[in-house]
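#struct-pred

JT: dropping the chains for the assembly here, can someone run the whole complex?
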Amino acid sequence: MEDAQIVNGLVRRCIAGDAVAWEEIVQRYHRRVFHLCYRFAGTSDDAQDLTQEVFVKMYRTLSSYDVERGAFMTWLTTMTRNLLVDHFRKTKQDRVTDSIDAAPSEHEDAMPLSDQIEDKGAPPDARVQSRETRELVHEGLQKLSPELREAVILRDLQDMDYRDIAAVLKVPEGTVKSRINRGRAELARLLQRTYKQVM
Amino acid sequence: MPGETNNGMQCNEFEAVLFDALDQKLSGGKLERFRAHARACAKCGPMFAEVEAGQHWLKTLTEVEPPANLVNDILAATSGIDSYRLQVAAPVTYKPSLGERIREWADSFLTPVWVTVRQPRFAMSFGMAFFSLSVALSVAGVKPSDIKQADLSRSGLRRTYYTTSARVVKYYENIRLVYEIESRVQEFKKATTPAEPGPKELKERDKNHKNNTSGDPEPRQERNYSRDENQPVLASAPDNPPAVSVTTNRRFA
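RK: done, full complex below.
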């Protein structure tokens, strides 16, 4: 049986009130949702709360999922993304990517954001897989604007195809590709400032 | 220069296949031409390098391990709204009972109140309220032991209800009996006493009294002191009663 059929079966059972089916759905998707929330929100605590919210919302609106209209994963990602955007608006942590290389404050001679990322001193090649590097990349990801961040997260971290991303973000596929391009380039530029010798 | 042909590929074509190249979908001659253009073009080359580097950095981010209690938390949170979901999703298969609906309805406005009330700043207010209540109860003579001794079980409450109802019915029956006896006594009294002049006759009499303008004293009403025939004293009296002389001495001034 295909994965989509299994998931649809689970959803149907869950709507009929089968608690086991619901638990299976939670077991199946909680990692993915948590990962998406963590990369978008930035902290584990926020990600945990948001993941819980996503599943509570899904539990309430599961009956509204239409098998004919798209894959369950796309539906779930759309819901997660909408909740993350709402959360982002509430916390007012919005940042404009275009200003990454600009001064973070009103002072023209202030240090750019990219220069504020601490250089630990060790060669980047040696620790590209290290925890600190991942943390720096994660920090860099948080500096991107939400539009670019969600596009690169869905593509490079969630491995979604462009069509599904376009469905989730409700923008044309060309816009999705453009945002992914810009997001990757902005992130590279940000980290390049930190590790000039590598790049 | 943008749009310029470098090794058989233009910049717009380069951008069109950029994603295929990044997704490792380009091969053969097309890939070679792509790489050649990237090396030669001053605009596309750096742009491709940046995008590829960004992609590389993002690939280093591995999937994070969620907290161990996350699944349990999710299940606990969702099982709390079980009735709501089933009510929305499958109204045919599950209908919440009246008690659940009342509880849900009460929760909708009690929960925010409870959340507000639990704040520490209200602790002193509740302390004072409790103190005032306990003082008022002790002044009123209410003892907690009385409440403790009260049987609040279901059967106890039912027994109390029936006992109270029986007491009320008995009291009502007693009161009704008393009123019935009272009314009978009044009826009996009315039947045995002579009829008094009605209000109309009394009025007529008053009128006659007021119309007398002669100034003479009101004529004395003839009173018949004789007894009826059936009165035994007169009936047995002799026909010639003894003469009684009455002498009246008048004093003249």
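JT: nice. Confidence is low (pLDDT under 50) at residues 81-92 of chain B. The two ends of chain B are 170 Å apart (CA to CA).
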